[in-house]
Amino acid sequence: MMKKSLKLLFLLGFISSLILSQGLYAQKFGYIDSEFLLNKHPDYKLVQEELASVSEQWKKEAQKLEQEIKEMRSSLKAEEVLLTEEMYRERMNAIQEKEKQAIAFNNRVFGINGQYYQKQAELLQPLQSMIFDAIDKVCKRFNLAVLFDKASGPLMIYTDPRHDYSEFVLQELGLEN
């Protein structure tokens, strides 16, 4: 019994000395709103405009392909009675080939990892790097252990505004209100 008490006492002493030597202090947490930061940055509006322009161009190309398919189908429908079976099959094959081209175009441009998303990443990367550097400086200045992003999803149920460091990041970016 006495031996167990000594072991327990020794173990408790060891753990408390370990905690004291590690200097476990309360960790500081905070959050930012990356949407708020992006919308406040003037470069973000330029990125959005350029992306919208490129996107509009690609949408027009996709619509043009769809219109061509529609015209080919209506032409085939109008001339169907005049065509031989072989001519009908050739035109159907041409329509199907055009549909494949349209699908391939849409996948290449707007699909997962398509040109649209690559362009978006390319345009946003410098801005995101700049914001991340500012976030890093703010975290170091305020000794934050963890900084959450309020805009990145349903991660936070409640946020106390006094822990919002978005304004400090704006100041670090030189975009004070």
From TrEMBL:
Coiled-coil residue spans: 48-82
Question: Which Gene3D superfamilies does the entry mention?
Answer: Skp domain
Annotated GO biological processes are: protein stabilization
List the Gene Ontology MF annotations in alphabetical order.
unfolded protein binding
In terms of PANTHER family, this protein maps to:
CHAPERONE PROTEIN SKP (PTHR35089)
Which family does this protein fall into? Belongs to the Skp family.
Q: What is this protein called?
A: Outer membrane protein
